[in-house]
Design a protein that fits this description.
Largest sheet: 8 strands, mixed
Strand content: 15-25%
Radius of gyration: 23 Å
Distance between the termini: 40 Å
């Protein structure tokens, strides 16, 4: 017996909450959804309902039980993806044929992210004696050496040093942008006019996701101490490569560098998808040791770190229009997008290129996206004859109204239809995918496990414009597919 279905259409979902939301939103009795609102009242004292004049959304947001605010037209897809996120039955039909499904664990210790040999935080670096005396460097990837007159523990985190040097630099007057206007909910989300996120969320972001220290046996037989962050998953692309190889309906598949981590949101954090996608881009920079990797020697920068980096870039005169349009993002839940991601990367001298695609009379925009992504991967492959082309290319930051994702591949079906393969920060890998990490396997129904990563005509066809941001330096000096 299948999951409960909607009495008015073909939608079905095993979660009663999502089914009820679907009926109330798309089939309301009086024409007005009962629990859809354009704004959300915070439970904490002093947080008032936002009002907006400019940039009001053309349709309301729905607050999902996962904590994210979803544009009404996207809610059905969002609910279906939650079902795929929890799916595990397909994995029961996957036979492990080589390699451990999970690494051999000798001992593990669970701690909070901030308690294990922490790197110097950005906020500490800005306020630390001596660090503020860093001279501003013309090349942010090569910060000047410290002149420490008060501390024997100068900051060693390059990003912290960079921000410290920028904090004392000359700031430009963003008020001179006469043509720039403050954006509203349509662009910045339901908290577009928020001055400060709730204190509980601020504390959660400061703590970060739980980190597990794992001692495991390496392939060389050595004892290796590893960190695992609860909302970061490594090795998913290797699983996707095997699933695509075993899906007989696929003719061609392109995949990016295997070191890209699937970074997803923490519980109830809401709409920080833009920051999570930037983290995924940075995970490539780290794994491939590409341009700018020396700025990220340890863990991925946190959401709050990324906010500081973007604000610092604006203060240095990089895309200062963004400061005017958002009113500032530090400590808020305002959505960010391609301009902010490009601003951050540019400020770190990481070359990138942004593209905007729109519907035309000659070609639908989603077909243009497929063409763009396919050509991007074709330009970097060395073994085009294989069904699954494993490249060393970076992932692509991918934005549409209300949400952003990270493109990690593209598949071409034997029918000629194409799908993007994405890491969506709103969803974590399913138990079935997690069970197959690090293993070689045979899946009886690979398409079921691939469903959560595919975005095709139905999803993309609802949008009339997209933005894509790609890194220009595709040289990989780190471990790649051949090292798996």
């Amino acid at each position: 017996m299948g999951p409960p279905s909607c009495p008015f259409c073909s939608f079905s979902n095993s979660n009663p909450y999502f089914l009820a939301q679907h009926v109330e939103t798309l089939h309301p009795e009086d024409g007005e959804p009962s629990f859809v609102s354009r704004h959300f009242l915070e439970e904490e004292a002093g947080c008032k309902e936002a009002t907006t004049v400019q940039g009001a959304p053309s349709q309301p947001y729905i607050e999902c039980e996962c904590g994210e605010a979803i544009v009404a037209s996207d809610f059905e897809d969002h609910a279906q993806l939650h079902s795929a996120e929890a799916a595990d039955s397909a994995a029961d039909m996957a036979e492990i044929v080589g390699g451990p499904a999970l690494p051999t664990q000798l001992r593990s210790t669970d701690r909070e992210a901030g308690s294990i040999e922490p790197t110097v935080s950005i906020s500490m670096a800005i306020n630390s004696p001596g660090v503020h005396q860093f001279a501003s460097s013309s090349n942010p990837r090569q910060p000047s050496q410290a002149v420490d007159h008060g501390s024997q523990h100068a900051a060693k985190d390059p990003l912290a040093l960079l921000l410290a040097s920028n904090a004392s630099g000359k700031k430009r007057d963003v008020g001179k942008h006469r043509n720039a206007k403050r954006l509203g909910e349509a662009e910045l989300g339901p908290y577009a006019h928020e001055d400060q996120m709730p204190a509980w969320l601020q504390r959660q972001l400061e703590r970060g996701a739980k980190v597990t220290i794992v001692n495991q046996i390496s392939h060389e037989g050595q004892l290796v101490r590893l960190e695992r962050v609860a909302n970061e998953t490594t090795g998913v692309l290797s699983v996707l490569a095997q699933l695509c190889e075993q899906d007989h309906l696929l003719a061609k598949v392109y995949l990016c560098h295997p070191g890209v981590q699937h970074v997803f949101k923490m519980a109830k954090e809401g709409g920080f998808c833009g920051y999570r996608n930037i983290q995924m881009m940075i995970s490539y920079v780290q794994a491939a040791r590409s341009q700018g990797h020396e700025l990220f020697p340890g863990r991925l920068p946190s959401v709050l770190d990324l906010q500081e980096l973007i604000e610092s870039a604006w203060d240095r005169g990089i895309n200062t229009t963004g400061k005017v349009e958002t009113g500032g993002i530090r400590g808020t839940r305002k959505y960010i997008g391609t301009p902010e991601a490009q601003t951050l990367l540019t400020s770190l001298s990481i070359s990138c290129e942004a593209s905007a695609l729109n519907d035309t009379d000659h070609r639908p925009v989603h077909e243009q996206v497929y063409d763009y992504v396919e050509q991007y991967f074709i330009d970097s492959i060395t073994t085009p004859a294989t069904k699954v082309c494993k490249t060393s290319s970076a992932p692509i930051y991918f934005q549409h109204q209300g949400h952003s994702l990270t493109i990690v591949g593209l598949e071409i079906r034997k029918s000629g239809n194409r799908n993007l393969l994405v890491f969506d920060p709103s969803f974590k890998p399913s138990p079935g995918i997690q069970r197959l990490l690090g293993a070689k396997f045979r899946a009886a129904a690979p398409e079921k496990l691939l469903k959560a990563y595919r975005r095709g005509d139905r999803y993309l066809g609802k949008h009339s414009s997209f933005e894509l941001l790609r890194l220009c330096d595709r040289r990989s000096f780190g471990a790649g597919w051949d090292d798996l």
